[in-house]
Amino acid sequence: MTDTPLRDTLARIARGDITATEAFDACAAAIEAREPEIRAFAHLDLDHARDALPGRAGLPLAGLPVALKDIFDSADMPTTYGSPIYAGWRPKTDAAVAARLRALGASLVGKTVTTEFAMAHPGPTRNPRDPARTPGGSSSGSAAAVAAGMTPAGIGTQTAGSVIRPASFCGIVGFKPSFGLLPTAGMKPLAPSFDTVGLFGRAVDDCALLCDLLLGGDGAPLQPVANRLRVGLVRGANWGEASPEAQAAVLGAAETLAKAGHAVEEITPPASFDELDAAHWTIMAREAALATAFEQSTAPERISASFSRLIAEGLAVSAAVHAAALAQMNGARAEMDALGGTFDLLLTFSAPGPAPIGLDFTGSPVFNKLWSALGTPCVTIPVRTEAPAPIGVQLVGRRYDDASFLARALAVEQTLAA
């Protein structure tokens, strides 16, 4: 049951094949069995969530557990933002996403591990597919919880590559919506120009269902597009940073889509896109330095060395340089909007390759920063490869066209799985 997609589990509950309590207990059993090794949760309280189950009867998510990244405030659980500064901290209110999940009937069984302030310094979480490997970051725990069968869905955030990369490493689906689509109120900010609420699931439809419900929809089944897709294959200037397995995964996906009748054409992105990595770092560093002013003034000794270096770099960025980088980013977003009329979606890398061995490095966001800067919706879909650990391919869509993009992504997922 713990490998069943979210919609299928909800349908079984609605038909009476299983009870909501049985579905919850299956997830709880998976948590109890795997959490000691995987360590996906920064805080866990199954008993509290189980006691609240009767009040979730009849609600859209029927009491199913959803993994919530510990970067979102929660009134009934600690919220630490991955930092020792906030050990035991109890916010007075829920973040908007947390409140919406509760209203939909989700069981928030705990808070999942995040890197420090959703940046680079890793937590203890291991990759469920191979515990010797990183699960990625910064949404380490949410991706791991879904991949381990602990929860059918999870909530993360992406500022650079923190949804797409861990989903790829853990062999699940990750969805980063268009910038600003889901509310960030009550979420600890890192770089407000990029911070985006993202979703994890076992299938594209899981993410589509959860996103639709969070936005106030009825969660109607997602229908794959039936028409021939125009797919732009993006190798990009960083092609050489991808491993042979990742290159084979992307080229293999392109070949499969072409054989299925879709129009696949390699495209060269505008030259301005090559400069966005530097602009992304400039903006992120300055905004992260400004966003953590309180922590710098009250507990600088409890900030990691890696985050302290980011702060130092950010404080060295002037307001004028930051403004110029924002203007550069906005110009590139306009170019991306114009480019969007020539394709239905783009196909590219989710990550440089399989998850690195070891827990000290959560992997490079080299293939994610561009799309985070452009604010586009992105999905990673796991593909079959000869690699020693999971690899996904990334699909990129047009800004604010998320529902149509997900329908196209579902068609791609079905084609690649055939």
UniProtKB/TrEMBL annotation:
Region (Disordered): 119-144
Cross-referenced PANTHER family: GLUTAMYL-TRNA(GLN) AMIDOTRANSFERASE SUBUNIT A, TRANSAMIDASE
Amidase domain boundaries: 26-405
Domain of life: Bacteria
InterPro entries: Amidase, Amidase_dom, AS_sf
Family: Belongs to the amidase family.
Protein name per its UniProtKB record: Amidase
Gene3D superfamilies according to UniProt: Amidase signature (AS) domain
